Fold this sequence. Notes:
Elements: H1 2-21, E1 30-43, H2 45-50, E2 51-64, E3 69-82, E4 94-106, E5 116-131, E6 144-160, E7 165-178, E8 181-195
Antiparallel strand pairs: 1-2, 1-8, 2-3, 3-4, 4-5, 5-6, 6-7, 7-8
Amino acid sequence: MKQLCVCLLLVFGAAEAQQAARPKVPVRKYEVSLGGGIALPFAPEVFNGYWTHAYHVSGGIGYSLSPQLTLALLGEYNSFVFNDATKTTAFAPTALVNAFLNLKYSFLPLATVRKWYPYIVAGAGVMNVSVSGLAAQPKGTTSVDELTFGIDGGAGIEYRLNTTTFIFLEGRGAMAFVTGNSYIALPARAGVRIRF
């Protein structure tokens, strides 16, 4: 029994020493991000019927509440491309502009030296939905220009380039609660985050 105890102490002591020896990175409290990509119109039918995709740009600032939890303010602009195959009689540019307060949870602490950090993100904020007037059938006529409440959520992965710079790839869903309908877009973006 004495030998078993000594053996267990040695094993646990070695594991603790190895954990203590693993290099740590200082937790940087602030972050700035820039990204771009595409967004797909998902709902309602008149939205995904007349537009194919959007060019997406975004930027944000964040504050680390802990090594795994970050609070971030994200601003986005999505400019949707009109689907010429619908043969409508009138159209104009359509855009979604968002400002979200998001909470991001990283599955691995940013204080440890690793290369890949998967995460999930969710939040709420305001969305300006600007859908131009259409006169076409069978999907009907639509015209929306409304500032409204919105929510978003998704997942992504970060790759550490050095102690301050990360690149990321992220997919999300964003929903705007417009009067009489909910507009849903699915942005996919890539970009860079700098922590300081």
